[in-house]
Design goal:
The chain is mainly beta. The chain contains one helix and 15 strands, in the order ββαβββββββββββββ. The strands form four sheets. Strands 9, 10, 11, 13, 14 and 15 form a six-stranded antiparallel sheet that branches. The protein has a three-stranded antiparallel sheet with strand order 1-4-3, with no helix packed on it. A three-stranded antiparallel sheet has the order 2-5-6.
């Protein structure tokens, strides 16, 4: 993510001094945020404190506190920064669960926007051609049984996710997963399996 953003705080008091920004009330954050802070002293009793982000990242999400001192002590106000981004998704676990079936489990960081759907790509060993898995997988899933592969064949699998801001990068997992030579008993009920039942 490369968008810039400003958080602005209007402060009234007298005499105004010691302008700072904190993140999540963490006093150690003030040193880092000092480099991003601009103070405009409008007059003796009014100042505008601006926190300038040149390039937003997910880690910038959070609640920020602007502070200044006057004769009454410390004054502060809260403001929230909500960063949205394209999702990131990675495969955690793969297991062959049938002659043409592979169980897949993944972790997703949704970028603060709901996942609409997942796309799967696969590549058969000995080829250099990626193919899209025919079914689209709904955004509420974090595991799925992929079907329709050749038996006793090694595949690499990749997954990407799409939210309102865009699609995550698709990269094939480096692991090869080989489908079974023959189906396991009860394969027609395979969608009811959970990973703990597969060992």
């Amino acid at each position: 993510m490369s968008e810039a953003a400003n958080l602005t705080c209007h402060i009234h008091g007298y005499p105004l001094s010691q302008f700072t920004w904190l993140k999540e009330n963490n006093s150690e954050s003030s040193e880092h945020l000092k480099n991003l802070t601009v103070v405009a002293q409008i007059n003796e009793t009014y100042a505008v404190l601006v926190l300038k982000f040149k390039s937003l990242a997910r880690k910038d999400n959070g609640t920020y506190v602007c502070q200044a001192n006057d004769y009454n002590g410390i004054m502060s106000a809260l403001t929230h920064l909500f960063v949205t981004d394209v999702p990131k998704v990675s495969i955690d676990f793969m297991k062959a669960v049938g002659a043409g079936s592979i169980f897949l489990n993944w972790t997703v960081s949704d970028g603060n926007e709901p996942i609409k759907k997942y796309f799967i790509q696969h590549m058969k060993k000995g080829t250099d051609q990626r193919q899209y898995y025919a079914e689209q997988i709904g955004g509420g899933n974090s595991s799925y049984v992929l079907k329709g592969f050749e038996s006793g064949t090694a595949y690499q699998i990749g997954i990407s996710a799409i939210n309102a801001l865009g699609t995550s990068h698709m990269q094939l997992d480096p692991r090869w997963i080989t489908t079974l030579e023959k189906g396991i008993s009860g394969e027609k009920n395979i969608t009811n399996f959970s990973p703990t039942h597969l060992f």
